[in-house]
Amino acid sequence: MPEFAQRRARLMRLLGRDSAAIFVSGGEANRNGDVDHPFRQDSTFYYLTGFEEPEAVAILRPGHAEPFVLFVRPFDAAQAIWVGPRAGVEGAVADFGADAAYPIGELEQRLPGLLSSASTLYFPFGAHPETEALVSRALASRRAAAPRGMRPIEAVRDPLPFADALRLIKSAAEVRDLQRAIDITGAGLVAAMGATHPGMHEYEAEAVLEAEYRRLGSPRNGFPTIAAAGVHSCTLHYTANRAVIEDGDLLLLDTGAEWDYYGADVTRTFPANGRFTRAQRDVYDIVFAAQAAGIARVRPGVEFHSVHNAALRVLVEGLIDLRILRGTPESNIERETYRPYFMHGTSHWLGLDVHDAGVYRANGRSTRLQPGMVLTVEPGLYLAPDAPRVPKRLQGIGIRIEDDILVTPSGRRNLSGRIPSRPEDLEAIVGQG
Ligand code: CA
Fold first, then answer.
1. Residue 182 alpha carbon to ligand 1 centre in Å
2. How far apart are CA 219 and CA 258, in angstroms?
3. How many angstroms is it from 376 CA to the middle of ligand 1?
4. Torsion of CA 301, 303, 319, 279, to 10 degrees
5. Ion ligand 1 — residues with CB under 5 Å?
6. What is d(CA 422, CA 401) in angstroms, rounded to the nearest whole number?
7. Nearest to residue 54, comparing CAs of 79, 33, 32, 18?
8. Helices marked H in 264-389 — which ranges?
9. What is the Cα gyration radius of the chain?
C-alpha cells in the first residue's frame, strides 16, 4: 500500500468505526498588495493525503465503503493559464487515491450526508473558522433530526493528537526523506563555510547556503535561516541577517533544507576568518562536550528530558570553569543560575515541521524515547555583553551546535553527524571554498 494510504489506514484504526474525521488544508496568506506568501501545505494534511493545494478538505470514514473523501478546488481552464493546472476532482481520485472527490464549493451541501453514519466526529475546533461553521451546522441538523430516529453525534473529539502520535514515529521512507534534507543542508553548510570571509554580509553567507540547497533539489527551507555574526549570535532567533561579518567574529548558521516536506535543522558556529580565538575555543569546547553528552543519552526507553539534563550538566560545569558561575553544578542547576546564558531547551522533535508534532510530557511524565523518533540535540551558550558576570574576553560569544538524531532499536544514529563540527575541521574548511 502506498505510504499515504498506509497512514490513513493506521489513523482510521485509531479513530475507530462509526466515526468520521475532518482535516482542513492550509490556506493562502496575503503578503502585501495582491502578492501572497508562497503556499506550503499544512503538515498533517500533507501527511495524510500528499495533496499540495490550498482550499481542500479531507474526510476519513473508517469502515465505510468510501472511507477517503476529498473536497478540492475544481479544475479551471482560465486559472490554468495564469497559475498552472490544479488536480481537480479527477486528479483527487486518480492521483491522490480519494474514493470520492467533489468541488470544495459543495462541502456545505454534502457534509451532513457524509457524516450521517458517524456517532463520533473528529474535528480540530478553533483552527479553521470557515469550515468550523459548516461542521457546526451539520452537528445542529443531526441534533434536530434525533427525535425522528436519526442517530445523534454523541462525541466530538480533536483528531490532531491521534495524527501527532503517528507523525512522532517515522517510517523508513520518512527517515530517508529526512536524511536527504539533512545531507543537502550539510552540503549547503560546507559551501557557506568555504565562502565565508570577513567583510561579507550575513545574508551573503545565507545566499551561498541556500543556492546549494536549490542546486541539490530542495525547493524551499523548513524555516528562515539564522545567519548571525558576532554579538548577533547571542540572539536566539535572529533572522535580520543584514550585518557585515567582521574579522574575529563567529558566524552562527542555523538552517535546514526541505526534501519532500521533511526539514533538516542543523546549526554550526565557526570563526569567520578561519581561526578560533582562545576565548571562542574555550566556549566552543564546552558546548561541543555538552552536545556529545546529550547525544550519548539518546536510546530507547530514556526520558526525553534526560537528554537536556545531560547536556545542561556539562554546560553548567563549563560556566563554573569559565568563572561565570560559582558553587557546585548541582546548586546552580537547582537555582537555574545558568538561564542568562542558556535559556532554551536542548531538543525538539523533527519531521514535517521543524518543531514537529508530538508531546514532550504527558500526565506529568517525560515522553520516553522510542525507535523511529527524531529529535535535535542543540545545546548552546550565549554570553551577551549585558549578561551578568561575563568577563570582557568572552563578551559577545554565542555558540550553538545542533544535530538531528534518530532513535534506533540499539541506540541512536546521528543523521547529521557527517557535517563537520569539530573545531579543527571547521578551521580547515572556512574561507577555503
Ligand atoms: Ca535549529
1. 12
2. 7
3. 8
4. 60
5. 254, 265
6. 10
7. 79
8. 278-297, 304-321, 329-335
9. 25
Q: How far is the CA of 403 from the centre of ligand 1 (A)?
A: 9
Q: Are strands 411-414 and 258-259 parallel, antiparallel or unpaired?
A: unpaired
Nearest 5°: the CA angle 183, 269, 223 is 55
Cell numbers describing residue 126: 478553533
pLDDT per residue of the chain (433 residues) written in tens, 0 to 9: 699 999 999 999 999 999 999 999 999 999 999 999 999 999 999 999 999 999 999 999 999 999 999 999 998 888 888 888 899 999 999 999 999 999 999 999 999 999 999 999 999 999 999 999 999 999 998 899 888 988 889 999 999 999 999 999 999 999 999 999 999 999 999 999 999 999 999 999 999 999 999 999 999 999 999 999 999 999 988 989 999 999 999 999 999 999 999 999 999 999 999 999 999 999 999 999 999 999 999 999 999 999 999 999 999 999 999 999 999 999 999 999 999 999 999 999 999 999 999 999 999 999 999 999 999 999 999 999 999 999 999 999 999 999 999 999 999 999 999 999 999 999 999 999 8
- Return the SS3 of 317: helix
Contact 270, 397 (CB under 8 A): no
Euclidean distance between CA atoms 331 and 216, whole angstroms: 48
Domains of the chain: 2-166 (3.40.350.10), 169-429 (3.90.230.10)
- In the reported structure, the alpha carbon of residue 71 is separated from the centroid of ligand 1 by a whole-number distance in angstroms of 35
Active site amino acids: 34, 237, 254, 265, 344, 348, 355, 378, 382, 400, 402
130 Cα: distance to centroid of ligand 1 (angstroms): 33
Task: Report how far residue 202's alpha carbon sits from residue 186's, in angstroms, rounded to the nearest whole number.
Answer: 18
pTM above 0.90, yes or no: yes
Residue 428: count of CB within 10 angstroms of its CB? 13
114's grid cell: 457524509
Q: How many CB atoms lie within 10 A of CB 214?
A: 14
- Return the C-alpha cell found at 343: 535559556
What number of residues does the chain have? 433
Distance CA 132, CA 320 (A): 54
As separate numbers, helices (DSSP H) first and strands (DSSP E) second, the chain gives 13, 20
Determine the distance separating the centroid of ligand 1 and the alpha carbon of 234, expressed in angstroms: 14
Nearest Cα residue to 99 out of 73, 62, 61, 69: 69
